[in-house]
Amino acid sequence: MGKRNDNFTYQSNLMAALMLMLRPRGATVKELMENLGVARSTVYEYIDALTLLGYPIGEPERKGREMVYRADSDSIRSLTPLTGDTELTKDDRETLNFLENITGSSALRMIMTPVLDKLIRLAPEGGISYRKADGSVMTAIMDVPPIMKKTSPKTAEIASALISAIRERQWIDIDYYSASKGEQKRMEKLFPIVSFIHNGGLYFYAQTEDDKLLTLAVERISELKVIIGNKPVPEYSKGYIKELLDDPFGITLTEPKPIMVKLFIDSGQAYYYKELDWPDSVNIETLDNGDIIFTVRTRGLWELERWIMKNSPVIKVLEPESVVTDVKWIIKEAYSLYEWL
Prior knowledge:
The protein contains ten helices and 14 strands. By secondary structure, the protein is an alpha+beta fold.
């Protein structure tokens, strides 16, 4: 196959050949020779090498005296950071996929590893949006959002430091105002996972040393300090981050592990819930009479229970029993407020 796979020029020429053949009109052998500056025999070696790497190069078609080669872009696996639609073009994804698949080029891997890590853990420029059950939208971001420019310089500075810590995968200490407790407290040794905008505020998910997941608001941080040292860095898969961001019920993920909840939804309102764009964590089964069984895998139990109450009596909890008990308690407490009427 000519030069070794770990040769930087060889790897670069392979990528260039692939991108030329991905064009709708493909590329002739002569075009490949001229663009890559190689002999005809080397072009054929590149085509063989790409085929061995798994790229579907179709049978050549004759164009005059030349043979035209095309790569089947529909058969090439796309590299999708996080989830959903991204700002990456088809060529962007194919290029990233090529770089992910090649082996032996230490130079390319050294360059691309941190870039791919950021793409996997964070959203592309502009962010990726996730719609929640209450109709609100959460947008995962990788840069300081414009809304921070409307806040105090101190908050904007903290937001910048936080996003930098997320990018560089650093542990942090913060001074944080807890709205529920009405007090300022020191929160130490947090690992920020991903940041996002929701209802005009900037938030982030963070893990504590004992693996507890927290949802924190940037506006409530008065001080942020990056921890310098050799503290082990948690590893998060694309699937885990997707699960956090794609949870349909709010941004406050109260459960350490996802819980399966099964609901009954009356046929009178079934159409409305069926037409909504739910994530993969939701399954909808339509019964013969038009009622639906709505099953969701969620960490946002607190907000799910409030969503059930908001839509009661159209929605009824079937299982688990713990959620049935919680909803009964909420109903009882709410009723007690109006017993005097």
